[in-house]
Protein 1
Amino acid sequence: MKTLNLDTLTAAFADIETITDPVQVAKLSQDYHTFSPVLVPKLAGKVGDIVVRPANEAEVIRVAATCAKYRVPVTVRGAGTGNYGQCVPLHGGVILDMTKMHEILWVKPAVARVEAGVKLAALDKKAREIGWEMRMAPSTYRTATIGGFIAGGSGGIGSIQYGLLGDRGNILGLRVVTLEEEPQIIELRGDDVQKVNHAWGINGIITQLELPLAPAYPWAEVIVTFDDFMTAAKFGYALGNADGMIKKLISVFASPIPRYFHPLQQYITEGTHPALLMVAEPNLESLPGLVQRYGGQITYQKPAQDTGKGTHLAEFTWNHTTLHARTVDTSITYLQSMFPPDSSLQLVEHMYRHFGAEVMMHLEFFRVGGAVIPGALQLVRYTTEERLNEIIRYHEAQGVTIANPHTYIIEDGGRKVIDPEQLKFKEMVDPYGLMNPGKSKVLEFNIHK
Ligand SMILES: Cc1cc2nc3c(=O)[nH]c(=O)nc-3n(C[C@H](O)[C@H](O)[C@H](O)COP(=O)(O)OP(=O)(O)OC[C@H]3O[C@@H](n4cnc5c(N)ncnc54)[C@H](O)[C@@H]3O)c2cc1C
C-alpha cells in the first residue's frame, strides 16, 4: 500500500460524505464478532482510517477509483451486524458504508430490485403492498442491509421453505463496481451471482441486487412446549416435512435456553422445551393434530393481524438466541452446525446427551437440497479456546458440519475452500487485492504492490 494520506483522500472524495472522527470511525469498524471470545482479542484495535458514505453508484465509482489509485484497502459495510469480523478492517483504509444507498428501485410480482443499502424490513414492507414478501431474512432483518445479507449471511427465517441464499434461484442478479483505477460496472445473472454471494466483500462492491419474492402469507406465531427435548426436536422435523403446511420458522430450544427469553417466560414453563413457529394462518387448523401426536402443548398464539405488535418470535431465533443469552451471561458463545438429514435425529440426540449443559441445543430446521435438516446454533458455555476447538472437532468427527464462527478467515469458517470461480472473479474485480484484505488464506496479500 502506498502511504495513506488522509488529506489526499478527503480531497479526492470532495463532496462525498466522510467521517474522520476517530470515535465514529472506530464504531463503524466493528461488527458482532463480539459473540466470539476467540475473535475479540484477535480483532482488538483494528480500525479503518476514514468512513466514506456514498449516496449513489457514481460516488461509489469515485471512491473505488481513488482507492485503487492510492492502493487503499476498502472494507465494505452494510449495517455491521455480521458475526465473523467480516466488517472489521485488518489493514485500516476506507470503510465504505453503503447505508445511504437505500432506494428500492422497483418491486413487481415475484421480483424486486434494490440498492445494496436497503434494509431487509423495508423491502419486505414494500413488497407486501402488492402481496409479496422476501423469501428469507436473517433475524437481524430490521437493521441489516440486503447487500450485507447477500455478501455475509446465509439464510434464516423463510429457509424452511426456500432453502439457503446460496441455493440456485434465491438471488437473481447483482451489480458490482470493481476496484480499479477505472472501475467497471458488472451485472451478474444466473449462476454467475455465486461469484459474489457470501464473498464477504472481497469480490466487488455490490451496488444493486435483484431478488425473487415469495407470495406473502398471513403468518401466525405459535409457541408449543414439550416435556422432553428430543420429542420437541422430532416434532420440529415432522412439521418441517409436512409439505402441505406452509411455514416460515421452526426453532426448537432445549431447556434451560428459554430462561434467556425474558418476555416469553409466561408461555414457557420452567424445564420445558419450546418450539417457536411461524405458520401460515390457514394452516393453523392442522397444527393441533401434529402437536397432539407429539404430546406438546400450545401455550401461545399470535394471529397474523397482530404482526408488528408486541413481541416478534423471530427475534428469539437464529442468532438472536445467542444475543439474548449473552445479554444475561456474557460467557456464553455459540456454534453453527448442520446435522445430516436423518429422520431419527440420532446425531442430534447424541450431541444433546454427550455435552449436556456445556452445549445447549438450539435447532433451526431448514431445507438443504430439498431435504429438511436440523441446523443448530448451539449455545456453548465457554471455558477455553482449546476446549471450544475440542467440541468443534468432536462434532466434525461424528459427521456434523460446523461453520466455525470463531474465525475471520473465510476458508476456516463455513466455506472451507473458496470457489475457484470466485477466485478468478476476484483477480478481475480487485487486481490490487484491496478488498477486505486478510480475510482469505489463499489470496495473496498483495496490497504492497
Ligand atoms: C443477533 C444476530 C442475529 C443474526 N441472525 C442471522 C441469521 O438469521 N441469518 C444470517 O444469515 N445471518 C445472521 N446474522 C448475521 C448478519 O446479521 C446477517 O448476515 C446480515 O444480513 C448482515 O447484514 P449487514 O448489513 O449487517 O452486513 P455487514 O455486517 O455490514 O456486512 C457483512 C459482510 O458483507 C460485506 N458487504 C456488506 N455490504 C456489501 C456490499 N454492498 N458489497 C459488497 N460486500 C458487502 C461486508 O464487507 C461484510 O464482509 C445475525 C447476526 C446477529 C448479530
Protein 2
Amino acid sequence: MRWLRPLGLALFWCAQWLAFVLTIEHGCPPWLAFALATCAGLWLVRRAADRTWAGLMRPLAFPASVCLTLSPIAVPSWVWLIALVIGAILYPRLDKKDAPLWRAPADLGSALARLLPQSPQVVLDAGCGLGDALVQFSRHWPAAQLRGIEISPLMRWICRQRLKSARIEAGDMWQLSWSGADLVYLFLRPEAMGDAQTKCLRDLAGTALVAALDFPLAASALASCRLASGKTLWLYRVAELAAPDRVLTPD
Ligand SMILES: C[S@@+](CC[C@H](N)C(=O)[O-])C[C@H]1O[C@@H](n2cnc3c(N)ncnc32)[C@H](O)[C@@H]1O
C-alpha cells in the first residue's frame, strides 16, 4: 500500500493539529498543548522505529508548522493545506526506500563521460525526476537513446517538456523492466541500493554498466570520482555485481 504512506503522513500531521487546538479550547495552556501534541508524535514515531525521510518528517512537521504559524512572519494556515496538496501531486505514492527529488549536480555528465570506456547507446535514468541528468546525457551522447522512469506525474511532465526525444515512462521503477539499457544511472537512497543491485542483475546484460551517484552498490567499482559538489560517482559492470565484494572509496 505505497500510496497510503504520504496520506498517513498528512493524517498524522492533521491529528496533531486537531489535538493541539482541541486541548487549548478545553482550557489547556498553549505551551502545554504544543508539548503534548509534539511528544505524542515523537512517541508514536519512536515506536514505529522509522528512520527514513518520511519517518523524520513526521515528528518534525507539526512543531515546525506551529512555530512558523506563530512566528513574526505568521504563515497563514491555508499554506499548510497547499503544501499538502503539492506534496501529494509531487509524490502520489512513496515507499520507505524511494528517494524524493534531489537534482543531479551540473558536472555529472562530464564526470560520467570521463569514467565510461565508450559512449552508451541506451541510457536509463531510474527515477529521472525533472530530467537534469538526462539533459546532460543528451549533450554528451546525442546519438544515444535516452529513457527515464518517473513515478511523479508532475516531474514526469516537466521532464518530457525538457527532453522531447527521450522516452519517459510512467510508473514504479521496481515494477518496470530495465532491460535493453547498456548504461543505467541511479541517484536513489541508501536503502534502495540493495534492491537496485538485484534489479540490475535480473534485468540487464552482463556487459551493461551501472553508474551510482552518492550511494554505492555492494560491489567493486570499475572506477569512481568525486564531483565538485562532494558527491561520489561509482561505475560498475553488471557481470561484476554478482559477487558483492567491497565498496571502493574515492581517491
Ligand atoms: C534523487 S531524485 C533523482 C532525479 C534524477 N535522476 C537526477 O539525477 O536528477 C530520485 C527520483 O526518483 C523518483 N522515484 C522515487 N522512487 C521511485 C520509484 N519507485 N519509481 C519511479 N521513480 C521513483 C523520485 O520521484 C525522484 O524524482
